[in-house]
Amino acid sequence: KTQAGAYRRKLESLMVNVDGFGLLPELYYVAKESVDAERKAPKSQKRVANENVPLVWAQSLYVTGLLLDEGYITKDDLDPLVMRRRSRRFTKSQIALVVLAENDDIKQHLAKHGVIAESLADINPVKLISAPHLVQAYSQVGANDTMGLTGRPARRLQSLATSQTYTINGTHCLCLSWLQSEQNGYRSFDTKLTTQNLERELAHIHNHWLSQEVAVFTWMVDQRFCETPGAVEFFDALWQLQLRSQHEHVGYASANLALRAGRDNALYLPNLCLTPFQTRSRELSDYAPKLTREHLIDDVAPLLDAEDDTGLYQAINNLMQGRALDANINNETVNCGGHTRLKDLIKTIYFKAQIKNYWLSARACFAILGHTHIDLGDALTMLAARHLSISIGAKSTNRITLTQAKLNAEIYEDISKVTESALEHTLIQEMLAAIGGLMRTHPDLFKGLGSIQLHNLLHLCCKQDDGEPLTLEGLGAQPPSHILNKIEGILESQRQLFSLGVTQSYNNKRASYSGIANSDAEAAHAIDTDWFEWRVERGLITNFDEDFLLEIWQSLSHAKYIVFGGKDMQDFTLDCELVRSSMTPGEASFAQHIDQLTHHIHPAYFKSAAIETLYGFTHYCSNNPEVFFEQPVVIAQIVEAAAQKLIDERGSEACETRNVDTLLQESPAVLQTYVAKVIAEMAAGNQL
What is the rounded (10 degree) CA torsion for 259, 262, 267, 271? Predict the structure, then answer.
């Protein structure tokens, strides 16, 4: 009660009086003409409330707290279900795995592989809907045209929503997993990726399911998937899950059993036209436009006759030269007056490429047809919520930062501006979607990351395990599961090895990178490693973990300014006193500020060296608590001075290699040694 009263008084002291009511503004700011004076004497200038008064969210929380403080309501009034005391630690969640077949033939096919499945006819009158169908239904919940109210925004629903059962206008419905929402995606034909995603989603549901009822995970198999290479391995995974041989919390359930045991939601939506899945028997040819080869021009023959992925990819590129998707490829001499669009042919080739796992050709067709992965917008929203910015563009002059407010079509256009080929376009899309998925299922991989440059990540993905480079076409020929695992491995490596050879304050004892097995700089120095290449890769994706950020914060009391650009580049200068007075080491804004100051440093190997130098500075300040640097600490100049000192002490003869390049070919232990010497000279008064 006492603590609540203290916070109440603090909030009320910040209120703005409007018509006799105390309202909470969004923020206070210092007037532009007073900024310089504020910097010289923090907290000396008047704070002015901005125009967003009241900030509705803050005012609502204040009013709620006021009602509690005055005794008008109780905690149980706010939370009658006592959700505040629930925890998944005490919920032994169980997952009912319902496998459905599009028709009886597929049901029998699954039975041959041990998978117990029901056809859509078997579960009647229960209906099957997709996650987009459910989004459509929820868009009408709460909608009222008379009052001008809309329903739920048309955002994608994920596993915790699709794992519930629904009674919509009296019809019992099961909902497919959101993983099966994408209609035009080639990724669903990668059975290894599908198996991985299935396992990850089941783990995600198990970890976050709070309800006492069973979670219902529904999966449907159609004819296309049965024809995909590797489908047998996926069927085996389903079989193992149904037997509970892999996870005791996942097991087989029929549709009717799942309905009785699941958490049901009753929705009455009189304006909803529900379109559930129907039993269908289709041939593979039914999934793509039907074309008669004899009616097409001779130029399409290489596409239809291609015997491998590379040949098909080349044929696609050759045919697309100078042609639009609406171009007529009808052979007038054979089929006079007919019209066959090039787009229909590309759709047919795209389907063929998916079924045969021709990943290079499938990715090219995906971009040519203007498709986008359904989860791009959600991925950006997820990343923005975790304060992680995403930028695209191989060159700094055309770099674009993707924001969370963009639609998939807008993201497609942005990617088109900075990519040179359909293949590159699709790979950038795929990596963005993969990062969003990993952020949801493996958030620890992103700890300490403030930004990711997707073209840098693409460069890392194009490096094979043996260190040899891979062409863009070579990467495009790999299955989506390979790229996802590659990205996960890169992020894990960067997370574990950020400070390898730089500091022992991180827990990298299990790390392994380029033959290095620990984080000790002296031990790493004894290993034959290409340190220049090590810095190139480490600089492409940089990581600031909590310990390093705390050390940076503590070093700010030892300097006035730290400069990450040129000496006069104000945009990349850290005002130590201002930052210490306006931020704390643990808040996201401080981590973002450091990331923004270092993000521009180029090339990647110099960025890595600059961050190593920053660590050297924090380490020196920690060991010398009385030191204070009156002049700006210019990181780039410290690196250059350390390089010159290395050359002077070794007596190296003049050569074509720059001094800095010579230093960057040395181990982190050597770089730290010379950085420490330069900083010591600065502290003694020999300012750079």
Answer: -50
Q: Is 525 exposed, middle or buried (0-12, 13-18, 19+ CB in 10 A)?
A: middle
Which three-class secondary structure state does DSSP give residue 250? strand
Alpha helices in 124-270 (DSSP H): 131-138, 159-162, 191-208, 223-226, 231-242, 255-261
Residue 298 sits at the vertex; the CA angle it makes with 293 and 304, to the nearest 5 degrees, is 50
Q: pTM of this prediction? A: 0.74
Amino acid, single-letter form, for residue 282:
R
Q: Which of 601, 584, 506 is nearest to 544 (CA)?
A: 506
Q: pLDDT tens for residues 154-213?
A: 778 888 999 999 999 999 999 999 889 887 789 999 999 999 999 999 999 998 898 889
CB within 8 Å of 659: residues ≥ 6 apart: 640, 643, 644, 646, 647
Residues 6+ apart with CB under 8 A from 510: 496
Helices 422-441 and 408-418 cross at an angle (nearest 10°) of: 130
- Quote the tokens at residue 470: 């891979």
Residues 6+ apart with CB under 8 A from 686: none
Residues 6+ apart with CB under 8 A from 495: 444, 445, 447, 448, 543, 545
From the CB of residue 484, how many other CB atoms can be counted at a distance below 10 Å?
23
How is residue 556 annotated by DSSP?
A: G
The dihedrals phi and psi of 598, each to the nearest 5 degrees, come to -100, -15
d(CA 53, CA 27): 9
- The Cα–Cα gap between 577 and 560 comes to 7
Quick check: 610 and 565 in contact, CB under 8 A? no
- C-alpha span between 384 and 404 (Å, rounded): 6
H-helix or E-strand spanning residue 217 = strand 215-221
Peptide bond into 632 cis (omega under 30): no
Rounded-to-integer distance, Cα 165 and Cα 126, Å: 10
Q: What is the pLDDT of residues 354-371, one digit of tens each?
A: 999 999 999 999 999 999
